[in-house]
Amino acid sequence: MIAIIDVTGHNVTSLVNSIHHLGFDCMLTHSHEKIINASHVILPGVGTAVNAMQALHDYDLVKLIQQLHQPLLGICLGMQRLFEYSEEGSVIGLGLLKGNVQRLPKIAGFSLPHIGWNSLHWSHNSLLQKEIDSDSYLYFMHGFAVQPVESTIATCHYGTNFSAIVYKNNVCGMQFHPEKSSMVVLKLLKNFLTWGAYENYTGY
By the 8 A CB rule, do 204 and 154 touch? Predict the structure, then answer.
């Protein structure tokens, strides 16, 4: 069973429907027991970094998430929470990946926040890339991002390069909204959901 961490009350129906469409079962939960026993865990993200991290603290989930060994996926703001620090509200993150979340720079010709379709550029091979073409277009909606770091395996360009997909050991993140990015990203979700146990892979 796949556990989608549900602590903010935001609508994640499209994500649930996408997972069901791929033939997998999932549950919305903040139960420690259910999260620990899940085969895969997804940390979605909507709202602000301050509220998102506070919600995890309120449900005493920070240490639990930091100690998970099964595949863990952070989506959009959920991906940003995987890192050490966010400029948005000066928030300390989960620290599972090295790097900081920064505001996208103001650059002439690029409106903020970054909303809409943009292309993906792979920089490292990984299990997530299976059956995914280079320069695939994905749907983004964010004003903060992580510059390319050690765990970055795919980037996007919007005035500057930023991390679109990150991956290390059992942890990965997607800055875009996979549930809103057509069949291309459904394949990415499927690649994540078909990962085996943590012991069977080591990251890139």
Answer: no
Which one of 26, 40, 76, 172 is the catalytic residue? 76
Question: What domains does the chain contain, in order, with CATH numbers?
Answer: 2-200 (3.40.50.880)
- Annotated catalytic residue 177: yes
pLDDT score at 9 = 64
The SS3 assignment for 60 reads coil
Using an 8 Å Cβ cutoff, are 124 and 204 in contact?
yes
CB distance 79 to 175 below 8 Å: yes
pLDDT tens string 48-103? 899 999 999 999 999 999 999 999 999 999 999 999 999 999 999 999 999 999 99
pLDDT tens digits, 85-97: 999 999 999 999 9
Query: CA-CA distance, 68 to 41, in Å (whole number)?
Result: 9
Is residue 84 part of the annotated active site? The answer reads: no
Residue 183 CA to residue 180 CA, distance in Å, equals: 9
Active site residue 76: yes
Residues in CB range of 31: below 8 A, 6 or more apart:
none
Cis peptide before 113 (omega within 30 of 0): yes
Residue 200 tokens, joined: 């069977």
Residue 170, classified by CB atoms within 10 Å of its CB into exposed (0-12), middle (13-18) or buried (19+), is buried
